[in-house]
Specification:
Blueprint: H1 2-9, E1 19-25, E2 28-33, E3 38-40, H2 41-48, H3 53-72, E4 75-76, E5 85-88, E6 93-95, E7 102-103, H4 124-127, H5 134-150, H6 160-169, H7 175-178, H8 184-193, H9 205-219, H10 238-241, H11 269-306, E8 312-314, H12 323-333, E9 336-342, E10 351-354, E11 361-363, E12 367-373, E13 382-383, H13 392-401, E14 405-414, E15 421-425, E16 431-432, E17 437-444, E18 453-454
Parallel strand pairs: 8-18, 9-12, 14-17
Antiparallel strand pairs: 1-2, 3-5, 4-7, 5-6, 8-11, 10-12, 11-14, 13-16, 15-17
């Protein structure tokens, strides 16, 4: 429970219910959470049956935004369901209960063979006992979207186990056969999120959010421009054209032709005109100055966007994927990977570590080492200390004091101080033999003028 609280406290996002503290009351562990005045999505669905498309898209967008933040921090929720989505009275969407969330590099909750989650929203890979990944959370979001729009869950059966097993061999009924007014582009986004093969789903929560919002926007009818019919000129009889009190009608001159007020006492007419012109001149100078500043700012922004800077990307979470899938993810992110095959109790070919922490901002083309299981149990050894976040000198001393040799490599990274360790291989708490080499990855400053930023896959 304390582990849950400490992990949740690391996350901060407008669409997450904040965790403020961990306490014990008469020996009972408790967490102090943000109070959300509202109802859960499960309660809303029980009351309303199904939601309007616009409301469902709004809720899912907030949910995906929260998951993006968690995935970027290397954390998978693993139990995304309507009961863990709060709808505040003011309309805010808040994701709660990261209680069984885990760091993407932490396998302690899966090595015992446990399947953790809620049957109706579990991804197929979770049902089959494989580790949950960010893609598993996206499947759960797809299931929630389906339920919000269809008014029923994607799969129904008599027992939770039967529900979970259905998704290994079946696809849900096409959403538009259940509810015909769901726009086809929106339905296609949901169907892709519910793909049984994780490789066929969206690669990140941000990609799915953009696809969902884009599909909804594309399905809205374009607003036709309003045309104003010309008002025909009518010729009225003179009797109708004149007002009843025509004799009292007062002529109004245009302002430009109206008599000007006399100059102030003691001020000649030419002097008054000159003063007025000076005021107008000063006003013109101010306007021209503001325009110059605006043009200069626009030029700087354009140069920053298109001016040949180096793209910066977030390192995806490779852990839990097969090496083949991880290689494809790296290619899409513009990164290169190197395989380091190691003994592990995990299935052969599964990535169980990476030398650069997920979410680290690095320049495109950077190299990431993936630690891949060869399927053989490791020999007993010494746990490798976690030196990520330490300065290079401190990390080197820590590893040498633990009996290891150290190899240092560098990567251009943003968002961290130069000289900070952003990754290591073997990873934290992996075992290694005394005298074995531990490689650490140290951040250097990205090149000046690096412009465009691209998000990585969660």
């Amino acid at each position: 429970f304390k582990r849950e609280a400490l992990m949740a406290a690391q996350l901060s996002h407008p669409n997450m219910a904040g965790v403020f503290d961990y306490v014990q009351d008469n020996g009972r562990p408790c967490i102090v959470m943000e109070f959300v005045n509202g109802e859960t999505l499960a309660e809303r669905l029980a009351r309303a049956g199904r939601l309007d498309v616009v409301e469902a898209v709004r809720i899912a967008s907030g949910l995906l935004s929260a998951l993006r933040s968690a995935h970027d921090a290397g954390i998978v929720h693993r139990d995304v369901k309507p009961g863990n989505v709060m709808l505040a009275a003011k309309g805010d969407v808040k994701v709660t209960d990261f209680g069984i969330a885990r760091a993407a590099s932490d396998h302690t909750l899966t090595e015992t063979g446990m399947v953790i989650g809620t049957a109706h929203y579990l991804a197929p890979e979770q049902v089959s006992g494989r580790p949950a990944t960010p893609s598993s959370d996206l499947y759960s979001v797809g299931a929630i979207l389906y339920e919000m729009l269809a008014g029923k869950k994607p799969f129904e059966a008599e027992t939770p186990i039967a529900v979970a097993m259905k998704r290994l061999t079946e696809d849900p009924a096409p959403l538009r056969t259940v509810r015909g007014d769901v726009p086809a582009p929106v339905a296609q986004v949901i169907e892709r999120a519910l793909a049984r093969d994780p490789a066929e789903r969206y690669t990140s929560a941000e990609e799915m959010r953009r696809a969902l919002e884009g599909a909804f926007a594309a399905s809205q009818p374009a607003t036709a421009p309003q045309t104003i019919a010309p008002t025909p000129t009518e010729i009225l009889p003179i009797a109708d054209a004149l007002p009843p009190n025509a004799a009292e009608t007062v002529a109004v001159r245009p302002a430009a032709l109206a008599p000007q007020p006399p100059p102030k006492t003691g001020e000649s007419l030419p002097a008054a005109v000159a003063e007025r012109r000076r005021r107008e001149y000063r006003r013109l100078i101010v306007i021209l100055g503001l325009l110059a500043v605006g043009v200069a700012t626009a030029v700087i922004l354009v140069l920053a966007l298109v001016g040949g800077g180096t793209d910066v990307v977030a390192v995806p979470t490779f852990v839990g994927h097969t090496y083949t899938d991880a290689t494809a993810m790296a290619r899409r992110a513009g990164l290169t990977v190197v395989e380091d095959e190691r003994p592990s109790r995990r299935a052969a070919g599964t990535v169980f570590g990476q030398d650069i922490r997920a979410g680290t901002q690095v320049v495109q083309g950077a190299q990431v080492t993936l630690i891949v299981s060869n399927g053989t149990p490791p020999a007993a050894g010494t746990p490798v200390p976690d030196v990520r976040g330490k300065k290079q000198d401190e990390a080197t001393r820590t590893l040498k004091d633990a009996g290891f040799t150290v190899k240092v490599t560098y990567v251009q990274a943003g968002g961290v101080d130069p000289g900070t360790v952003v990754g290591q291989n073997p990873g934290p708490n992996d075992t290694a033999q005394p005298g074995q080499q531990v490689a650490i990855v140290v951040a250097t400053s990205p090149p000046k003028g690096h412009g465009k930023h691209k998000g990585g896959e969660g």
